[in-house]
């Protein structure tokens, strides 16, 4: 292959473009939007007068695909974290607070000591994770039960954060590869990290600059409307303006969202049911320093799930936000702010300036039916492959899955 057409400049498309350009392939990158990054992008919010992310994303040090991508584009240093595998939690119903510190190595010695475990759990509770090995299509709720503190303070919040699907619907086995690659390998692979100055600054802008230095043709604001093909290969790309021939030695990576891809190639299956995420960004004047020593805080007993602090902005993530996504922004802020204030000992009566962002189709729902609709990277067209966190990566719809899918799409072209 000498030239590659990458359709979509989200993280999956950027990953494929970087992988191919690194092999000396000429790149043409098409993106309908005026900014790259897809759902993992940042923007300047005029109301808050701050740069904020479209959504909050937590990485772990075992996310090797994401970290390898950042190494290639020289941007790993744009991630920050505590430097250890520490996770802080607060139960707002009981006022309990605890910290989980994973030890080094794959043997979880920390579960042997009561003061290290989630309050109200026993050492044997953690053995329940072995059920994932034979989970089949059982849901999180049916596999682990809905009783006890291990479920309420670990499996439920963990699964909702990772799968973005309610526990009574979410297929539990999709948690297994995440645990295998991170938590089960110990502290070295479980350290939390976030983008220091935003997702665009960390993942998107460095990738675009890296591609530009390699003479990539980046076409923003260009919508793809379909393809021409002969049944075996893609022969042309149709755009809203004209078209682009696909030469005999060209390849195509289609990295568009799952609700777009089947409209471009009707023989592609894709998930059809999606789950929302609601993110809120509160600007809290004077909120810096001591309280920011817990810049990442998980909540239990609250509609809010994770809090992220960057400067004077407290960002909140509500996963599987079916109860909130259709409410007005003002009402959502009024529901969430009292819990944020309680978590950080702030005034819960006065809601500070806030931006509410609703991503109605943040991820596909991880139900048995939708998992069956995840397509492989390889298609019936020998010169076209698929990329996206919704493809059959073996992982949930995460940054790690998106970036890995881009590499997988390139490998599928080479096979």
Index terms:
FAD/NAD(P)-binding domain; Alpha-Beta Plaits; five-stranded parallel β-sheet; 10 helices; 20 strands; 25% helix; 25% strand; globular
Structural write-up:
- The protein is built from ten helices and 20 strands.
- The protein is of the alpha/beta class.
- It has three domains: 166 residues, 3-Layer(bba) Sandwich (FAD/NAD(P)-binding domain), CATH 3.50.50; 105 residues, no CATH class; 91 residues, Alpha-Beta Plaits (2-Layer Sandwich).
- The strands form five sheets. The chain has a seven-stranded mixed beta sheet, with helices on both faces. Strands 10-2-1-14-20 form a five-stranded parallel beta sheet, with helices on one face.
- The longest helix is centred in the last third of the chain and has 16 residues.
- It starts with a strand and ends with a helix.
């Amino acid at each position: 292959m000498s030239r590659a057409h990458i359709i979509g400049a989200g993280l999956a498309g950027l990953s494929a473009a970087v992988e191919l350009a690194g092999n000396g392939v000429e790149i043409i990158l098409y993106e309908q939007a005026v900014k790259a990054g897809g759902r993992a992008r940042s923007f300047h919010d005029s109301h808050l007068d701050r740069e904020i992310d479209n959504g909050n994303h937590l990485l772990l040090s075992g996310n090797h695909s994401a970290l390898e991508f950042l190494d290639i584009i020289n941007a790993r240093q744009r991630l920050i974290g505590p430097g250890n595998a520490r996770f802080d939690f607060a139960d707002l119903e009981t006022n309990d607070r605890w910290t989980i510190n994973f030890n080094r190595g794959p043997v979880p010695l920390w579960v042997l000591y009561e003061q290290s475990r989630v309050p109200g759990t026993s050492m044997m509770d953690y053995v329940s994770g072995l059920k994932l090995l034979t989970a089949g299509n059982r849901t999180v709720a049916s596999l682990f039960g809905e009783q006890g503190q291990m479920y309420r303070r670990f499996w439920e919040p963990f699964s909702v954060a990772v799968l973005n699907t309610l526990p009574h619907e979410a297929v539990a086995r999709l948690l297994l590869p995440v645990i295998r690659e991170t938590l089960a390998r110990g502290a070295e692979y479980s350290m939390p990290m976030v983008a220091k100055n935003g997702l665009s600054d960390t993942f998107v802008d460095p990738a675009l600059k890296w591609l530009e230095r390699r003479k990539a043709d980046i076409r923003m604001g260009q919508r793809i409307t379909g393809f021409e093909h002969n049944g075996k290969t893609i022969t042309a790309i149709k755009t809203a303006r004209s078209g682009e021939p696909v030469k005999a030695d060209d390849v195509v990576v289609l990295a568009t969202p799952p609700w777009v891809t089947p409209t471009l190639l009707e023989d592609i299956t894709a998930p059809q049911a999606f789950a929302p995420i609601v993110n809120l960004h509160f600007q809290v004047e004077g909120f810096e320093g001591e309280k920011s020593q817990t810049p990442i805080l998980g909540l239990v007993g609250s509609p809010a799930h994770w809090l992220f602090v960057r400067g004077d902005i407290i960002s909140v993530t509500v996963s599987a936000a079916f109860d909130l996504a259709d409410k007005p922004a003002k009402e959502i802020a009024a529901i969430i702010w009292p819990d944020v204030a309680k978590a950080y000992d702030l005034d819960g009566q006065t809601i500070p300036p806030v931006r509410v962002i609703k991503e109605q189709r943040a991820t596909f729902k991880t139900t048995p039916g939708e998992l069956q609709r995840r397509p492989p990277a390889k298609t019936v067209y020998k010169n076209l492959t698929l990329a996206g966190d919704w493809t059959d990566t073996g992982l949930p719809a995460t940054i790690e899955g998106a970036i890995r899918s881009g590499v997988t799409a390139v490998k599928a072209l080479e096979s």
